Amino acid sequence: MAPSQAAGSAADPDGLEDRLRRFATIWSRAIFPVTATSLTRPEVEEHLLPLARELCLSLHARPFDPQVAQRVGAALVEAHCTDPEALSRTLGVVDAYLVLYCGSGDPEQSAEESRARCAKLQHALAAGFAQGLRERTLAEQEAIARSSLLARSDAMQALHATEARFSAVFEGAAIGIGIADLEGNVLEVNDTLTRMFGGLEHHVRGRRVTDWAHPEDRPHVWELYGELVRGEREHFRVEKPFYRNDGTVLWTNLTVSLLRDAEGQPEYQLALMEDTTERRLLNLRLRYEATHDALTGLPNRTLFFERLEKALSAGDGARFGLCYLDLDGFKAINDSLGHAAGDRLLVEVADRLQSCATAPGEMVARLGGDEFVALTTGPDTQREVDELATRILAVLASPICVDGREFTVRGSIGIVEGPAGERTTAEVLRSADITMYRAKSAGGNRFELADPEADARAITRHGLTTALPAALERGEFFIEYQPLVHLGDGSVHGAEALVRWCHPQHGVLGPDQFIPLAEHTGLIVPLGRWVLQEAVRQARYWQERHSDGGPLRINVNLSPTQLHHPGLVADTVDVLERSGLEPGALCLEVTESALIGADEDLLKPLRQLAEMGVDIALDDFGTGYSNLANLRRLPVSVLKLDRSFTQGMQRHPADPVDLKIVEGIVSLAHSLQLAVTVEGVETGAQAEQLRELGCDTAQGWYYARPGPPDKLHALSLADAV
Fold first, then answer.
1. DSSP class of residue 98?
2. Around Cβ 265, how many Cβ atoms within 10 Å?
């Protein structure tokens, strides 16, 4: 190996310079044949190497700035790579090889992000090329115009020389030049302009300027023209389309200047035309790719948001209707058949959705994944949006065949409809998304209408969900205790720990308002451990300070997620050991529904805790389709009877059916050596009946509402006295 090569390898362990050199070689080979330059192909390659390095650095830059590629595009024009084919080949090389040679080595950047950045760099490069070419052309136009005017002003002194010079400029110019009189009759055209219009001079010379009107002319074009021929302005510049003789459209950057005679009177008009048709087609293609989904061909998020913003900013009386669709169970199709089959299914779904939105003011777009939106505008969107959603569900009902298998696609749709101008785009999309999930929660394959109250509840839930982690760190949770009373003598048997959240905005929240959110986010595990620590610490404090009348045990609720957590037993043991509380003073409450169909793996940690001496209570017994025969295999020592069984005892006389049910459950529990605790006791008569039926302990507002620990201890002392 040569010394220079060895040094290069040491300085560049990833071989980036070698890969840049290969990229520049491919680039130079692609554009050299269409480049008007005196340089050799290796010299062109050396010129392209720093440009390749700029593209590579931009591909990995943070923050990402695609505008760097505009300088690369402009540099190509400066290097005389002005042929449109040079741009086309450059875009092809960047698309095929930039990520391949320069995309590796950055662990923070995925392949998908590299491809997305590459596409934006191509767009910026094309824009820079177009801008550079435009500036170069405009400079040529100004030079030509100055030469033309100078030639005519010097005609009296050097007519022959000036005419020869003007003729050379006129015929050899790379842009189209035409001269017409003030009536609009075309007098002279150069070869470039003739070729732009199809190559036949007689189809251009002798025609009138007004013959080239086009439906897409902007209104002020002909106003500017009228001012020029009247001598009210010296020149104007516009983008203007023309029809060629074969019916195709020629797009140009047109500059028209007024030529005056020796006395300063208007005499002729000079037109300079730059053919921008290819550039316009390229921009249209790039615009289409930027605003349409590559897989389905539907409008993408960008174009949809443009249309939605336009609909929401319409004038008085305008309305809009939005259907937000999410396919039900699409992930299962991807997981079972693969993403390629899932993509084919999405294409078929997109075709069907497109057939539903064909009326004026309707459109369908794909937001990403399996999420689609349909928008309708007009004066009667209240009816039209319902019909649109119905059509969507109807076309999805027919099975779709993918890889020889038929699938019935279901969808959940959230509908937002209303007058324009009242809500922002973000508010409309948020409401539609919330409503769609409401339809999905109701079983799917249906649509729901947006409800401001439901939106507010969902937004509140989201706010609570995001605030939960910080709330635990800031100590916003606290515990209230509700006494467990022995029905035999009315003494306080223990207490149940009930967590509360003191929210800064919403005040004190009960567990039903945030425990499901904690379950969903996984925060229930650290929150549950904190509740266990605080409750056990309080129980130990009661035992040490008030042994003459303190609660004998503490009951703590376990959520289903905590049951599945592998650290449940170790955490419980650690908390008990740190506090010094005996295992027999702790009772863990598990809802019956959490143990329906529980296998031995789920029951194993509960058995380990029970063997240590911790009591396990089956909470809400009677609400989970109880399998009484299943009780014998559960490691429980207490049944907590749900309040629904004892509500009938609040009436006089008590419901005899409720009495028989409770009596049977108590008898069964005692035969299995299980204690029975009753929840929701609210009257003295109810408490007396439960005592007569043999229930062991009870809790409810009849005894005390949940409160601070000192209130519970006061109740214990009163019972002791």
1. I
2. 9
